[in-house]
Amino acid sequence: MSKLNRFWASRWGIVFAGAVIGILASLLVVWGNPKNMGICVACFERDIAGALGLHRAAIVQYLRPEITGFVLGSTIAALISQEFKARAGSAPIGRFLLGAFAMIGALVFLGCPWRALLRLAGGDLNAVLGLAGLATGVAIGVSFIKRGYNLGRSHRAPAVVAWMMPSLMIGLLLLAIFTPRFLRDADGNPTGPIFSSTQGPGSMHALLVVSLLVGLVVGFLAQRTRFCTMGSIRDVLLMGDTHLISGVIALLVTAFLTNLVLTLAVPDLSLIKVGFADQPVAHDNHLWNFLGMVLAGLAFALAGGCPGRQLFLSGEGDGDAAVFVLGMITGAAFSHNFGLASSPAGPGPYGPIAVIIGLIVCGVMGFLAREKV
Amino acid sequence: MAVQIDARGLSCPKPVMLAREALKGGEFPIEVLVETGTSRDNVRRAAQSVGCTVTVEKVGDELRLIITK
Asked: What pLDDT digit, counting tens, does each position of A14-30 carry?
């Protein structure tokens, strides 16, 4: 094993990756992303669903280049390390559903596990409920895994399968660069096919090239170190293994310190506000912040990775992880079209019932999916 | 080979769980077949954490780990 590969696989490697991600996430807010949302895989995939017109929530539509960067950064790392390999066929429809319900749960809380950490690093104490929910959901998943839960083996696939997700991401990047708007509504105003928010979180973003570069760096580091927020909790609960969680803690600490330094050093910039009320892109309904993330955590645990990890896996050729990602984007569309997603005012009208349905669906899968290996 | 584990194509954390089961069984050497770098790293870390020696060889597109005490 080369010296560099040994570093990436070591505890210092994962801590380094987490620390860099934390710093970059905080800086992305300075560079234009919404507060406490330097990086949020769930929010960004939701914005992509909006930009593609899969939902029409006008304030959350933007083709976030960070997501493209995550996948392509992982592809580059995997190609260099000879880990780029087409594989697929482990219960794709199951993974699609897990992705959809993971997103529904995450959008009731308003963030993926990464954003839960970043919200906490910005003083948003609602994130404590979200993280507690995440840990609870993962714990439920671990109990299924201990009883023998698994979705069956994936198999080698033709190489072209590995290239589908990276290609899709290049397509999204081109759409982001050119933002075609050649369709017209009845009054002749330009509309679609790509939608862009003019106000709200979707209108707040760093320069495209900055977002893309940060995404590439994060994707590269995360592929090499196998960074995973869900896995970090699962490994502690299942095996007492603290390897991954040391990276997650590094992310939280460096994001907080970067927020603190920038808040103190830059006049008119406030990246830390401690409390529950009036937090950026958040609500303070404790019950549904908690239960939304229970659902998300359970779905991530059953699928074997947090939403970031699924992007990195899809970038190295894992077709099943790619299906999970597409499930998440679809789930985001349903979340907004069906009134499931929360807003700063609180949970959407049908968010709670969707979370309960999701818990039942994931619970049934957890009980019944027990392929003998 | 005393114990053989085929962990090819299994998603996390199954490969490392199978390896840990075998490590607890106490029969060595243990051969683990995996496909991904992630599974290789996880199984290796689990084995090394209990003081075992791990050698990795590439067999075609797959990775064969031999765990010895």
From this structure: 999 999 999 999 999 99
